[in-house]
Write a structure and sequence with these properties.
By secondary structure, the chain is α+β, with helices and mostly antiparallel strands. The chain has nine helices and ten strands. Strands 4, 5, 6, 7, 8 and 10 form a six-stranded mixed sheet that branches. It has a four-stranded antiparallel sheet with strand order 2-1-3-9. Helix 7 crosses helix 9. The relative contact order is 0.11.
Amino acid sequence: MNASLLTTALDLAARAVPVLPLRAGKLPFGNCPACTDNACGGRPNMKTAGPCQCPRPCHGWAAATTDPANLQSPAWASMWRQAHAVAYHPGGAGLTVVDLDNADAIAWARQSLPATRTVPTTRGEHWIYLGAMQSANKVRPSVDIKSTMSYARWLGPGTGTMAGLPDVVRALVVKKPSTARSAPLAVTVPAPTGGGECRHRMPAYLERGIAMAEQRITEARSGVHATVYRTFLAVLSAHGRCGCLTDTHVARLFTAAQAKGESPRHCTDAWTNARTALGM
């Protein structure tokens, strides 16, 4: 067992920082046979997050824990024997890491971001702010945001005083509206049932429902994947069987989800999973 890494993990866990071991290549372990060697695609087990069908979150950021019994359990012992590093879930600790991958990115941060605690990395620096937000990759050239639903390698406590999460960092993940005309979304709407007659009868009811769904997604502060899935499930439950939903309505929901950082694939997966859950 890599005792020094486990000691580091236990120390962080005692300070309420959720941790997990990393294998070679800075990748998380799969904690069950179905996920060994990344067979499931490396995604944490969430209803909308991919093919992993494990009975509990078994790997990636979702497996990060502060429970010393879990960290020292026989189930984790083999992982610590093979571990190359310790990672932590910044969002779970109420933190955001701005990952600056080269000298140009560091120069930009020094000109554009408030000073905060910094940690040297192999190629650049981690700037750590107090406060959690949505994670996103490539918000600028060689700049990633690691916070909720993400993990970062633990490279030491760093230097400097940690500043509160500034709006300028939050703004990095806000997608600017595209001026280009989007291609129509290829979404299959369930066929109408009950002769195609809408039991709601009033178009305003559907419009109100779509507007509320957009607002629910837009206002999500954490757990965006789960919020999108639950919202899609609610919309389909209310309107998916009467034939009222059109591609335009679905495109509005997808647009709201993508504005929160969801990829088109995640949107499609969440929509498909919601339909499957409702037997559509």
